[in-house]
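Recall from the previous chapter that SMILES is a line notation for molecules. Here it describes zinc ion.
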Amino acid sequence: MVLETKRNPTIWKHFDLCLITDNHEMARCNGCGKFMSSRQLDSKETHRTSLPRDQGEKRKG
Ligand SMILES: [Zn+2]
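With both inputs in hand, we obtain:
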């Protein structure tokens, strides 16, 4: 389940905020699909190394 977030859009435009079964929020990278803790993201810049080079393209699903 993907939630909306009002958090730092500079970071979150590259991630989806997902609610997983344990009522935990996890951030899913749009680039590689990897899950990270949302708190981790708020404190970090991003994990942009694995993002695709064409940043204009958005993929969902
Ligand atoms: Zn990634």
